[in-house]
Amino acid sequence: MTLFLFFFFGSIVGSYFETTNQRIARDDNLILDSNKRFLRSQCDHCKKELSWLDLFPIFSFLFLKGKCRYCKKPIKIDHLISELLFGLIFCLLILSDNSLDLFLTIPFFSFLFAIALFDYKYFLIPKIYLLFFILISFFSLYFEGSFTNIIFASVMTLTVFIAKQIMDRLMKRETLGNGDLFLIFGLGFFHSPIEFSFTLLLASSLGIVIFVLKSLMNNPIDKVPLGTLLAIGSISSFSFI
Ligand SMILES: [Zn+2]
């Protein structure tokens, strides 16, 4: 029962962040609408304000067969994906025997996966998410982190920064965004050195696999969403190490 409640709670958070991601992508105000009223959720097509019946995570999407109740146009599948993903992550957090408090891990992984979803779609990390993410990771030092975390995070981020400078020169373009560097720094504050190393290892291995597979399929890519890969590495190391 607790697990189901956590899944449900996670799917509500996922629904919220999917809406916020779309607003950031459109460069909309995140708090007020054009009439200076607090924003309510609305249909992407007909702009009709949605009631709680339309916003019930997962079930609303399935019940409405993925279509808006009012204009019958399709609702983006991204909503369902985000709701299922966050539901799953919240379940992983409660099942993990990691000693960190849920009051810390829930906001940390919520912002991390909001970044992951955004980066996957737009190859960009929104500054507002990054700010919250860094604040939470600093806060985590107060509870759990040790001096080792700070040293290790700084050394690893500096190493990645130097590697970025070399790669930028060699490839004559920006190979890694500054947002990625801040993300790596925040992850280093939050995770123990072992978890953090595993996170970086898994993210870079996944990046190489994607790069090679895409090249083999004659569809070479010049960038991978590192934020997404780091988030996958982070939740894996948190849950299974
Ligand atoms: Zn509609």
Structure overview:
This protein has about 240 residues and is mainly α. The chain folds into two domains: about 1-95, no CATH class; about 100-240, no CATH class. It has helices at about 1-25, 50-55, 60-65, 75-95, 100-120, 125-145, 145-170, 180-190, 195-215, 225-240. Helix 6 runs parallel beside helix 8 (about 180-190). The radius of gyration is 19 Å and the shape is globular. The chain starts with a helix and ends with a helix. The mean pLDDT is about 90. The structure holds zinc ion. Zinc ion binds near residues 43, 45, 46 and 48.
Give structural attributes.
241 residues, mainly alpha, globular, binds zinc ion
Write a short abstract of this structure.
The chain has 241 residues and is mainly alpha-helical. It is 69% helix and 0% strand.
* Mean model confidence by pLDDT: 89
Quaternary organisation of the protein chains: single chain
Strand content: under 5%
Poorly predicted tracts of residues: none
Q: Which compounds are bound in this model?
A: zinc ion
Structural class assignment: mainly alpha
The SSE string, one letter per element, is HHHHHHHHHH
Shape: globular
Question: How many separate helices?
Answer: 10
Please give the radius of gyration in angstroms. Answer: 19 Å
Largest sheet: none
What is the rounded distance between the termini?
A: 26 Å
Number of strands: 0
Please, how many domains?
2
Level of helix content?
55-70%
